[in-house]
Amino acid sequence: MRRASMPLDQLKKSACASLNQQVFEEIEGKPKPKKSKYGNSKTEVNGIAFDSAKEANRYTKLLLLLKVGQIGLLRLQVPYELNPGGTHSLIYIADFVYVDVATSQEVVEDAKGHRTREYIKKRRLMKKVHGVTIKET
User: Fold this and answer.
1) Is the pLDDT higher at 116 or at 19?
2) Do residues 94 and 123 touch, judged by C-beta distance below 8 A?
3) What share of the chain is helix, strand, coil (3-state, %, to 5)?
4) Which secondary structure element, helix H or strand E, spans residue 78, and what is its range?
5) pTM, entire model
6) Counted domains in the chain
7) Structural domain containing residue 117
């Protein structure tokens, strides 16, 4: 005996529809948005995409400091080689690099929400290879 198939609209309104939400999304072809591993959300400021809202907020604060003249030469996503001359390339990408006008020192800054093992390793290597202490915000 053949069963009559129920239209998709009627299935969505059925009592068990909430239990099968994933099935409806697959049928309609809507991809389920991926949740970030650390809970961050991509944010855009002045046409620049940031990996987290924390990083975007820090950027807006640094822009204000740049306007009032407390910092200078603000750069974003600056790469540093951590294994020069080695067989494997190891690069640390700083979120922000700028010059503190009061001390004339270059500051390497990272907007951190969660310190991973890889980051801790790279932070240690930055100190050893380049003599740079990363400022974490």
Assistant:
1) 116
2) no
3) 35, 25, 40
4) strand 71-81
5) 0.67
6) 1
7) 43-136
Q: Say what the pLDDT of residue 62 is.
A: 92
Work out whether strand 105-110 and strand 135-136 pair parallel, antiparallel, or are unpaired: parallel
Give a yes or no: residue 32 inside a domain: no
CB 71 within 8 A of CB 101: yes
Please report whether residue 74 resides in a domain: yes
Tokens linked to 49: 């995409």
What's the whole-number average pLDDT of the chain? 80
- Give 14: exposed, middle or buried? Use CB within 10 Å, 0-12, 13-18, 19+: exposed
Residue count of the chain: 137
Instruction: Give the pairing type, strands 105-110 and 91-100.
Output: antiparallel
> Which pLDDT score, from 0 to 100, does residue 15 have?
60
Give yes or no for residue 26 having a pLDDT over 80.
Answer: no
pLDDT tens by residue, 61-87: 999 999 999 998 999 999 999 887 777
DSSP character at residue 130? I
Sole residue written with tokens 């800054």: 109
Burial bucket for residue 11 (CB in 10 Å: 0-12, 13-18, 19+): middle
